[in-house]
Design goal:
Layout (H helix, E strand, L loop, with lengths): L1 E10 L2 E11 L4 E5 L6 H9 L5 E7 L2 E2 L5 H4 L4 E4 L11 H7 L4 H4 L2 H11 L1 H5 L10 H13 L5 E5 L7 H16 L3 E5 L3 H7 L2 E6 L2 E7 H6 L1 H6 L4
Parallel strand pairs: 3-8, 3-9, 6-7, 7-8
Antiparallel strand pairs: 1-2, 1-4, 4-5, 9-10
Helix pairs in contact: 3-7, 7-8
The chain binds adenosine-5'-triphosphate.
Protein name: ABC transporter ATP-binding protein
Keywords: Amino-acid transport, ATP-binding, Nucleotide-binding, Transport
Organism: Phytohabitans flavus
Amino acid sequence: MLEIRDLDAFYGDAQALWGVTMDVHDGETVAVLGTNGAGKSTLVNAVAGLHAKRRGRVAVGGVDIAHLPAHKVCEYGVAVVPEGRRVFPAMSVYDNLCLGAYRRTARAEYRQSLDRVYGIFPRLRQRTGQLAGSLSGGEQQMLAIGRALMAKPTLLLLDEPSLGLAPVMTDEVFEAIEAVNAQGVSVLLVEQDVDRALEAAGRGYLLAEGRVAGSGTSAELRASDTVQRSVLGI
Ligand SMILES: Nc1ncnc2c1ncn2[C@@H]1O[C@H](COP(=O)(O)OP(=O)(O)OP(=O)(O)O)[C@@H](O)[C@H]1O
């Protein structure tokens, strides 16, 4: 599904990712753990084509997309939910969702996609006419995920979905992520909340200072001293 090989990324001359290699197989949820500044958002943006300067291979379904801009990357079935959600506050829930169906193949089937999104997030159905800016933080996160699903992705990149959410909302968002994955969408889940991430994912990687510092199944990562030290500070 997603194959990242020797990926370097830069901000100007400053290198933020160093030789990152990881995979997400069909139907998997894979967690990427790491502290602030480890390079998690840079990784998501580099895969999504939102990052201008990168080097290495990023392939989706065997096709190298490393040099494509974001609007082309989404044509290969990759959708991103960026950190901080970024919904359009002055537009309704419905209009935000419809904007997600811009991909050519998604546009024709937006009605079915809408039903699917409302099935996963009943709260969004109840609030379909409400302005996105008036939703709670958790509801906005649901909307951001729903909007990404409207593009009918095969791979969803999620950047810190729990950020700033109350625990009860985080529970709902993670239940939804598991429901999305159960429908066959592969997920790359960037998350600082180690417990929740490893619960949702089958396996994961640890990023530290822009490099892969560890990998394994969720059970292995939970037991790993490096994860305990580096992310949990224990
Ligand atoms: N626009 C930018 N310009 C210059 N350096 C940047 C920029 N964005 C991020 N960086 C640097 O790149 C490194 C990785 O940052 P990144 O945001 O990817 O980390 P992160 O793991 O997502 O952290 P957080 O959890 O705090 O979002 C950091 O050293 C950061 O200071």
